[in-house]
Amino acid sequence: MSVSILETPPSAPRSAPPRKIWTRGECERLRDTGVLDYEHLELIDGELIQTMGKGRPHSYSILLLREFLVAAFGALFVQQETPIDVSPIDNPVNEPEPDLAVISCPYTHYPTGNPPASDVRLVVEISHTTLTFDRTVKAQLYARAGIPEYWIVDLEGRRLLVHREPREGQYRSVLAFGGDEHVSPLAAPGSGLAVKDALPPKQ
Fold this sequence. Notes:
This protein has one domain: Alpha-Beta Complex (tt1808, chain A). The two termini are about 25 Å apart. The mean pLDDT is about 85. The chain has three helices and eleven strands. The strands form three sheets. A seven-stranded mixed beta sheet has the order 1-9-8-7-6-5-4. Strands 2-3 form a two-stranded antiparallel sheet.
């Protein structure tokens, strides 16, 4: 059965030396001049996070989950590794690129900009070495944006962490589902996913 793991996660560690806080505008200008390889970077809380080197298990899980989400919502409503907007207060220094996102309008509706948080129905992150970051920084970012559901595929723990009920910058419901359990997205209650079907085979 699913297990509640609702808790106050540890704060992300902060280093003592000052750091350069990047804005989306600055990153866009660097990208346009070719100085910044923005394709493999993600802007979170004003810091540029390296996103390359995901590995085969990570990619395998994305493909499995994308197939499920496309069947549940349709291909035009599922984004893969594509930026979204978050809350207005966070947008200037954040441009997350969730592994998968389900949006309420076809992605052709956003030819020149990101989907706003109000159009995002579900975000998914695949975690191997980034579980703490995804459970703290990313979860708080998505909760502040009011995104109703956030899934983390924990590859190491072979489980799915389902975050729901965003309020005051936190998800008030966090449940862990094991491989033999089933989960349905809030926006598609008739579509059930066996958690094991989102995980690569055991090594």
